[in-house]
Design brief:
9 helices; mainly alpha; Fumarate Reductase Cytochrome B subunit; 217 residues; two-stranded antiparallel sheet; 2 strands
């Protein structure tokens, strides 16, 4: 077995920090809704606002990193082997069948992951963040008699923000489960901590060959 460096330092930092902030936002957000008591309403609301701005800053930084490094290409949707990937998750994985796609530095996501993660980044996260910003700044908008208040009442904004938060939690639960579907139940988590994935020698040679082909003029 050989180790290949798949996940870069910033990529791992961004991944774990984003996950931590989302979980903390869920904790403080649902406390604000009265689901349980940990910090108290005022502290939970203050922590929630602070964490939300930190997450927005992290997302802006991550967008810049994806654009400047070309990593945004990892999320380009493809239908190649998409059917095989879906069938693998539905039944193949339970029969011990081999994974239909191989992970490389140039292609870290399988066809299904590309679609799901793109939807996460372009729909789910913007829905939750934009509704959250409107909710936080609602009084400011109201005091300035902005038209947005007439079109989007507070109850509607709260509904979409809560829906987004719930969907984010569903995504995280499924995401954590999917991390256990690697070569071992903990191999994917370990790779996201160290940056290295373990592959057989044949796979490593194919990865180097594909990388050299891409770098050719």
């Amino acid at each position: 077995m050989e180790k290949i460096y798949i996940y870069k330092g910033f990529e791992r930092f961004w991944h774990w920090t984003q996950a931590s902030l989302i979980l903390f936002l869920a904790l403080t957000g649902f406390e604000v809704h009265g689901a349980f008591h940990v910090f108290g309403f005022e502290k939970a609301a203050a922590f929630h606002r602070t964490a939300s701005w930190l997450l927005i800053g992290l997302i802006i930084l991550a967008i810049f990193w994806h654009i400047t490094t070309g990593e945004w290409r990892q999320y380009i949707p493809t239908t190649k082997q998409l059917k095989e990937q879906i069938l693998y998750y539905l039944k193949g994985i339970f029969k011990g069948e081999p994974h239909p796609t191989e992970k490389t530095e140039l292609s870290k996501l399988n066809p299904l992951q590309r679609i799901v993660y793109l939807g996460f980044k372009l729909i789910l996260v913007p829905l939750t963040i934009l509704s959250g910003i409107l909710y936080m700044l609602y009084k400011t908008f109201d005091q300035n008699n902005l038209i947005v208040i007439e079109e989007y009442p507070l109850e509607s904004i709260a509904f979409w923000h809560t829906l987004g938060a719930i969907l984010l939690m569903v995504f995280l639960v499924v995401h954590v489960y999917m991390t256990t579907t690697g070569k071992t139940p903990t191999s994917n988590i370990k790779a996201m901590i160290t940056g290295y994935e373990e592959f057989d020698e044949e796979h490593k040679e194919e990865t180097v060959k594909n990388k050299n082909t891409k770098n050719q003029p």
